[in-house]
Amino acid sequence: MQTTFYFAQNRLKFMIMKRTDVFSFAREFWSCFWPLILLLMTIPVWWLQRWQEVSHQKAIKEAFWKQDALVAIERLRGGATFESQIEETVQKMSKLISSTLDKPGCRADVGEIISQAFIKSIPKSHRSSLTKIFAFSIDENGKGVPIKGQLLERSKSVMMASLFGEVATAEKKHLSSYDTFNKRCQGIFGELVSFEYLAFQQKGKMIPCFYNEERVYIIWSDFQKSENQSGGFLLIFSAGDKKNSNPLLYGIKNYIKKSHHEIYPLLVSLEGYREKGKPLFWAPKSIVPNSIASKFFRIIAELEKKPFSDREMLCTPGQVSEEFPGWWVTRNVIAAEIHYELWIVSKIPEDLKFVFPGVVEIVLSCIIFTCWFLFIALPRIKGIEGSVPMKIWFGIYFFLVGALPLYFLSLFSTTIIKMTADRSVNEVIQNTLERFEKIDMESNVVSASVNNLCRKAIFSSQLCKEFRDYPLGETKPGPELSKVFSFFERAGYPLKHVLAYRFGKDILSITPKGKPGKFERVASEMNFLLVSGVKAFFDSVAPDDLFKVIEMKYKLYFKVFSSSFISNVFPDYFDLRHRVHLHRTRELSWIQFYDFIGSGKKIDMCILFRTIVNDAFKKYLSERFADLDKDSRVKLRDDPEYPTINYSFCGRVGTSMEVFYKSSVNLFRSTEGKRFVSEMVDAGKFDSRRVVLYGKGGRKVFIAYPSKKMPGFVLGAQIFLAPVFLDQTEKEIFIAFLLIIVGIMIVFFAFTLVSHLLNPIGKINFALSSVSQGDLSTRLIFERDDEIGEAAKAFNSMIEGLVKRKELGRFVSQTLEGNLDEIGRSEGSEKRFLREESGVILVSDIRNFTTLSENYPPDVVVKMLNEHLESMTQAIKMNGGKIDQFIGDAVVAVFSGESLSSEVQKSISSAIKMMEKHSEIQMIRRQSNEFEYAMGIGIDAGKFFLTSFGSQTRMEHNVIGDPRIQSEKLEAFSKEGRGSKIIVSEIITKVASDRTFEKLPKHDAWELVI
Q: Could you give the CA distance from residue 129 to residue 138 in angstroms, rounded to a whole number?
């Protein structure tokens, strides 16, 4: 390129010095550089296309990355605490023990299996020497038996096994009272930990309490040893274990690594907050390379020196920053108690950093530049005049007029189509989320149904009378309440139990027949203080009068809340009656409804209904999702019932999530299905939405939507974007087809123009080339009346003139054939044609031709003469001679153009050939009994003149000079020759020294000896 511009620069300097005309200079500049300008116009077009493709891919990949980064932050938020991490690892530990014991032929010691599972599951950073583990198995009688092992505690193992054996089997037993077990729990872990609390709500959950008068955290879980035998374990963590461990580091290492992209987490102290002794910036060495950590440390350190808003401007929380070239960066806070924010950074893939032209673009650019340089620029740089062929001009014209607009139209159309497809994808995702939100909001129909059932039941005077007359401590339903239980059962919302707070008497907890009342104490603890407060507030009764039905534990709670009896909480609570209230535990969702019943002017009772609505929500969602499935199928070419969306929802069962509805059973057997379930479980665990693009080009979407109105349920959808991309493909095909049609029309127009204009011009050019090579038989036949037809007629007229001129040339000296144009220009003027040349003159003549003419008929003589002259002409031309004149029977030939020695040799060779042909003719005539004749040849060399002479009406063209005269004389001396009859002058003998000559006796002439 530099060399090209160097030559071009020199050429321009030369043109500037040579020409002062500005317009002439501009024309020269344009003629030299227009192909390069065209090249510079075409390269940005290819770059634009490449930029469009890369930008689209970058947007898709950036969306992937952003979703992954946000999920990573949410995972870290949900798992950054010591409690959440221990609860998760305990769940893994329970599964690991069960799976190991379930292996066929497992003979390992149970205690050793539990110890190894403890080591593998609980991180080393989260346990210390103070961490204790108790393990127990449950025998055939349902009693807990301690398990011995390497890491298992022995001290108090029998007591722990006995207590937690009952805790693990509490749901299966119908115990009338838990008082004994409550006292045992409170004696070990303090008054705040009850048996029901451990058995029915806190399995697999961290519980802060006291053990051996020290503050600890306890957590228990069970495992299945065999079909008829099970067990469990209890972990006790010291309060120091929480401080010594690093939950944030553990969370980063475990939750960040689950991402699908190579992302690097960085912890940066919050602006305006810097803990004493804590670093400004921290990155886990096992995940983040030093080069990346040091780069961002410098950036953040500089930000700390600037105003508060600089970090916000550089990287907005929750958004992908564009202020870091070559990097995707986002940041967000973790939790209120953690004074660090999390920065997620990733390198942008190499193929998306810069926009380079592709291989095709580079090759085409090189071809265009090479053609420009070799065929246009280089000849002009060297000063060689030339022109661009018309076909190239027309090709460039149609490229600019046709191809480039079509290309830009294609580029614009595909951009619009891709933007439309992206918008359609977003609309599909948004519509699905809106459907889920609508389903979630309309789940109030379950609560409304329960509310109506409860209102009908509570207004029954017989039911209220039955509650007032219930015997103290009775738990079985009476006749009226049995009807209520049956009524709720038939409606699909079975009551789990009914509570009646009979102020001054007791608390009734009544369950359906054959059902354990495992929620009675839990419900009592949650509502007793409020309903008692309402009673005291409205009746103005001293709180101490309520102590008659309050146990020691509740008296403590009551005293704590007694100061609140004068607040507005109790009137507000009273106003909330006759309404259902949705509550959620870790495993279940339940609805409660209550009302205060008065006797006279005083409140004497509060009746509370409670029903578990997990099954009701499940039924509701199944019906709604079945309706969604009917609307999620579209007709495609290959599959008339192609599902565009596979719906599913899952709910919590115990401590795990279970899928309740599947649009496609086969989906959940695949790797995609497992990932789908994982996303839904993850979303439910961290209570955050998931919108995950996956597949080639992001052609599928996973959506996981945790329900707000139905706790514990996660709505999911797998969206196939095939219809969207099929529509995009069809539009692109249509645009391509349309462009092809337009392109074909342009090409057809180009070919039509070529056939109408350029092809005739090509034929004219070919005809001119043929004529220049001497072919005068070429004619142009165009049946058209336009300029091309006129040009063809003019060409044919010109050829006719040339043919006539050629015919005329037969009567003109061949020595003057090459100068006809000059002679023509001389004719009619005072100047006559005259040119001096050097060469050899050969003259031949038939002996006694006059006598032959007199003795034989004219036709015989003419025939003989034509045959003779034809043979002599061939012999002369064969050796490079030119016929100057036929003078009767004489032939005058000229040899010139090359060196004298060469021309002499040619003339001698011609003479010898002429004599040979003469001998052949005589032999033939002799055999035909025709008369014979003799001939002689004279040859001389020197300077002579080619000239024209005569009058205005008649001109002669001839060779004159001494060589012509001497040749004629030498030919006359051939009568005296005794051999070859070829007589030459002295100069010939000197030049042709390799030949043998014999001097004639009486003349200065020499005969060639053959």
A: 28
Q: Name residue 441's beta-bridge partners.
A: none
Q: Supply the pLDDT for residue 712.
A: 83
Distance CA 939, CA 125 (A): 125
Q: How far apart are the C-alpha atoms of 662 and 216, rounded to whole Å?
A: 43
With beta carbons less than 8 A apart as the criterion, state whether 739 and 405 touch: no
How far apart, in whole angstroms, are the C-alpha atoms of residue 953 and residue 723?
95
Considering only CA atoms, which of 944, 1000, 1005 is closest in space to residue 970? 1005
Residue 49's pLDDT is: 62
| Residue 940: pLDDT band with limits 50, 70, 90 | very high
Q: Would you tell me the crossing angle of helices 444-458 and 614-631 to the nearest 10 degrees?
A: 140
Q: How many residues does the chain have?
A: 1010
Q: Which long-range contacts (CB under 8 A, 24 or more apart) does 515-518 make?
A: 516/171, 516/173, 516/174, 516/175, 517/475, 518/170, 518/171, 518/196, 518/199, 518/200
Beta strand ranges found along 49-196 (DSSP E): 132-138, 144-146
CB contact set of 490 (below 8 Å; sequence gap of 6+): none
pLDDT for res 640: 47
Number of H helices, E strands in the chain: 33, 29
End-to-end Cα separation, the chain, in angstroms: 69
Q: Give the Å distances, CA to CA, from 709 to 279, 533, 590.
A: 42, 29, 11
Cα 619 to Cα 495, 614, 651, 652, 674, distances in angstroms: 16, 9, 12, 15, 24
Average pLDDT estimate for 873-883: 89
The sign of the torsion formed by the CA atoms of 769, 770, 771, 774 equals positive
Tokens of 813: 């000296």
Which DSSP string corresponds to 450-482?
Answer: HHHHHHHHHT-HHHHHHHHTPPTT--S--HHHH
Query: 346-399 pLDDT, tens per residue?
Result: 877 665 554 444 455 555 556 656 655 655 555 555 555 555 566 666 666 666
Write down the mean pLDDT value for the chain: 76
pLDDT tens for each residue of 969-996: 999 998 888 888 899 999 999 999 889 8
Is residue 142 within 8 Å of residue 169, measured between CB atoms? yes
- Cα atoms found within 13 Å of the Cα of residue 195, Cβ hemisphere only: 25
Q: Which amino acid is at 50?
A: R
Q: Could you write out the three-class secondary structure of 912-952?
A: HHHHHHHHHHHHHHHHCCCCCCCEEEEEEEEEEEEEEEECC
This model's pTM is above 0.85:
no
Residue 20: what residue type? Answer: T
For β-strands 1006-1008 and 997-999, DSSP reports them as antiparallel
Strands across the sheet containing 580-584 = 506-510, 495-502, 602-612, 589-599, 580-584
Q: Contacts by 240-244 with C-beta closer than 8 Å and gap 24+?
A: 240/128, 240/130, 241/82, 241/126, 241/127, 241/128, 241/130, 241/131, 241/217, 242/82, 242/217, 244/125, 244/128
Q: Tell me the C-alpha distance between 444 and 448, whole Å.
A: 6
Q: Which residue has tokens 């309404």?
A: 579
Q: Is 854 exposed, middle or buried (0-12, 13-18, 19+ CB in 10 A)?
A: exposed
- Taking only the tens place, the pLDDT of each residue in 191-225 is 778 787 777 666 888 888 889 888 899 998 888 76
Whole-angstrom distance, CA of residue 908 vs CA of residue 897: 16
How many alpha carbons lie under 13 Å from residue 202 in its C-beta half-sphere? 21
Residue range 948-963: average pLDDT? 73
Q: What is the DSSP letter of 270?
A: P
What is d(CA 17, CA 272) in angstroms, rounded to the nearest whole number? 72
User: Alpha-carbon distance 136 to 157, whole Å?
Assistant: 8
Q: List, for residues 761-817, the tens digit of each pLDDT value.
A: 777 777 877 777 777 777 777 777 777 778 888 878 887 877 766 665 554 455 545
The pLDDT tens digits of the residues spanning 390-449 come to 666 666 666 666 666 776 777 777 778 777 777 788 788 888 888 898 899 888 888 888
